[in-house]
Structure prediction request, 221 residues.
Amino acid sequence: MPRLVLLGKQGAGKGTQAGRLADHFGVVHLSTGEIFRAQASLGTAFGLEAKRYMDSGDLVPDEIVVGVIDECLAPGGPLEDGFVLDGFPRTLYQAQELDRVLDGRPLDLAINLDVPREIVLDRLAGRRVCDNCQRVYHVNLPPSNDWICDTCGGPVVQRDDDTEEAIDRRLELYEQETVPIIEYYRAKGMLAEVDGVGEGDKVFDRLVNAVNEHASANDSV
Ligand SMILES: [Zn+2]
Prediction:
């Protein structure tokens, strides 16, 4: 069962693809963004604190994120059975901490899902989300009835962290923080670069191929 990290700008389709990869390989999808949003709506202290950072476009501090990952990857769970990490690591320090948490069971592969900045800007600035069931829409693909969710009837709104200012800050930060992580995994021979532009199904096939190719390359060593 693979232990994977999926890296990619917000808006690169990383969350959706991470979920599909997890289903495909029969492992857990661990999204730090989803964990924080769920915790914030439950009103827990760390969830609310994490949401404050996300809403303003800042990175959630290392100690909060690493604490969550430490808990999610406690021995006996996904650590042995495999996982797809999405939204983590976001800094070189977090990547190093992940190696510590994995404790001798290294990642199989870190995949960089590559989508140019102007494409993700357009996707993110136009994104609208159902406040109730979290279904995602786009200004070019709205619900059929006046921003009322087709699925549940909830209000479809722009999320606090999807304003252009917040998006710009996030992409800027992302680029600063991610280049060292990519180099870190490249140096370990654990990095795959996958083109994230195009139809979702095609991108998904590329991702599955990258995982399988890496696995068979390692087996034949
Ligand atoms: Zn809804």
